[in-house]
Amino acid sequence: MTSTPVSFRQAQAADLERIVQLLADDKLGSTREVFSVPLDPAYLRAFESIATDPNNELIVAVQAEAVVGVLQITFIPNLSHRGGWRALIEGVRVAAEARAAGIGRAMFLWAIERARERRCHLVQLTSDKSRPDAIRFYESLGFVASHEGMKLPLAASDQRR
What we know:
This protein is α+β, with helices and mostly antiparallel strands. The protein has helices spanning 16-24, 29-32, 41-52, 80-83, 103-117, 132-140, 156-159; strands spanning 6-10, 56-63, 66-77, 85-94, 120-125. The chain has a single domain, classed as Aminopeptidase, CATH 3.40.630. The longest helix is centred in the last third of the chain and has 15 residues, at 103-117.
């Protein structure tokens, strides 16, 4: 694990620049995120939507008072599985300088426990097929590629509402 303890907390508006920086500092993220100061107002609108939705949590990993990781966990009610809830983990990033130190594993273990606290019967995620290392990491945590995921991109103008 890490030599300095890692803690987890709800993201705050003051964390938003660092979060976007983490999301953009990634092979795929660099093609879809724009880190600039000031931030694109769309990021603030999204943050406000997440922060006010009781079924969404944007969580940061903090080490030595610095944000070194982020993930979003969304709690989804379902009629299937006898009305069971599921947790969806998205937007996971660990700062480049903090990778391979156990922070990602600690973040996932925290998120899985949070899903248990919310009485979820399932935790799910998607991973881009071009990330074999990430897929191996998720498998090491017990995730199983049991379904084939599909996505339908919508026009950029539809996404910016």
